[in-house]
Amino acid sequence: MSDDVDEASGVPSADLTALHAPLAGELEAAARRVLASGRFILGAEVAAFERELAAALGVARAVGISSGTDALLALLMAHGVGPGDEVVTTPLSFFATAGVIARVGARPVFADVEPDTLNLAPDRAIEKLGPRARAIVVVHLFGRAARTAPLAAACTSRGLALIEDAAQAIGATSDGRPVGSVGAAALSFFPSKNLGGFGDGGAVVTDDAALADRVALLRSHGATARMRHELVGGNFRLDELQAALLRVKLPHLSRWTERRRGHARRYRAALANLPGLALPPDDDTCVWNQFVVRVRDGRRDELARALAKRKIATAIYYATPLHLQPALASLGHGAGDFPVAEAAAAEVLALPVAAELDDTAIDRVADAVRQFFP
Ligand SMILES: *Cc1c(COP(=O)(O)O)cnc(C)c1O
Questions:
Q1: Which of 204, 138, 195 is nearest to 165 (CA)?
Q2: Rounded to whole angstroms, how far apart are CA atoms 155 and 152?
Q3: By the number of CB atoms within 10 A of the CB, which of 72, 294, 343, 357 ranks highest?
């Protein structure tokens, strides 16, 4: 009996079926158009999506890529980052951010995050720029733009590349500038991102035309014409089918972002001043890929369990900071190296904030959180 009640009041982290239902006719037409065209790789759909994406984001160029991970990898390759090089980045991100640095043979050099935004702290990052540094990879975590201006200045004066991991931050701005317009940004269309595809996908966006051309070469094994390879690249292409489907969703992105912002405001009003709970800093330009609260006094997992009992989905981004991941053990880090990131990892909890959730769902989550804190 009580299960039925729980079922009725549950809140999922996302409901892509509901998000896509009003677009079903257009999505099916787009898929049929590609099937009928017989062209599945780098055709009219990818080219049109790239133009539409660049225009929507206010950047000069967009290059469709197979995933957000490959977009980061292609950017490192385009900048010639390789063995012996160091790349400064954050310890609080998805593994891909550091994984791609290791994959090109370079060394990830971590710098701690800011305690409020959880984004890379610019002064700490700049301190870590040694003689072998070749680039900074800054992550716009949870949809909140990091402070890129001081990083950009440091990179320019030292001749380093600034790469933005904007997998979670499509449409965000930093000091009024769209992500990707300061250095170059990697976007992800993984289904849970703000603009999710129907499988894997990504893009590089930038105002630097020469860099965009280089990334476009690298995504097809560096080939300029049939069988002529100017660079060693990879197969990093976005499919025609994904591009056609993403073109249907792109015009709705800004409306969906506004819904996420509305949910964030609703949480902020409902959860203000709860002892034991810290809300993410307010920010009108954040696109809220995640709404991540911090639960004090070691009660994070207890709150997650209490919400799970009511079938409210939560997630932990990220339980283990990158410097403590087994795959990067050779870097020689230990607990205590990046205390701000480690403290966050023990306290963060993501609450449902997807565009397709309605106000009632957000209120249910907020009520359940409030009841947990007496
Ligand atoms: C999702 C994500 C990626 C990787 O994107 P994929 O498309 O899944 O390869 C990279 N960095 C961050 C911060 C992400 O959230």
A1: 138
A2: 5
A3: 72
pLDDT, average across residues 304-326: 98
Q: Which residues contact 74 (CB under 8 A, 6 or more apart)?
A: 65, 204, 215, 218, 219, 233, 234, 236
- Can you say whether the dihedral through the CA atoms of 42, 43, 48, 51 is positive or negative? positive
For residues 50 and 296, what is the distance between their CA atoms, to the nearest angstrom?
A: 43
Measure 29 CA to ligand 1 centroid, in angstroms. Answer: 28
* CA quadruple 316, 360, 260, 192: dihedral sign: positive
**67 in contact with ligand 1, CB cutoff 6 A:** yes
Q: Is the CB of 190 under 6 A from ligand 1?
A: yes
| CA 195 – ligand 1 centroid, Å | 12
* 2 Cβ contact partners less than 8 Å away, ≥ 6 residues apart: none
At 4, the pLDDT band (50, 70, 90 cuts) reads very low
Whose tokens are 């305690």? That residue is: 115
By most ligand atoms within 8 Å of CB, the mutation choice from 103, 168, 204, 236 for ligand 1 is: 168
Atom of ligand 1 nearest to the CA of 289: 15
Per-residue pLDDT of 64-95, as tens digits, reads 999 999 999 999 999 999 999 999 999 999 99
Give which of 285, 276, 266 is closest to 351, Cα–Cα.
266
**How sure is the predictor about 8, in pLDDT bands with cuts at 50, 70 and 90?**
low
Query: Bridge-partner residues for 138, per DSSP?
Result: 164
Kindly give the number of the ligand 1 atom that is closest to the alpha carbon of 69: 9
Residue 97 Cα, ligand 1 centroid: separation in angstroms? 8
Residue 186 β-bridge partners: 165, 204
CA 197–ligand 1 middle distance (angstroms) = 13
Taking the CA atoms of residue 351, residue 167, residue 195 and residue 356 in that order, the dihedral angle to the nearest 10 degrees is 0
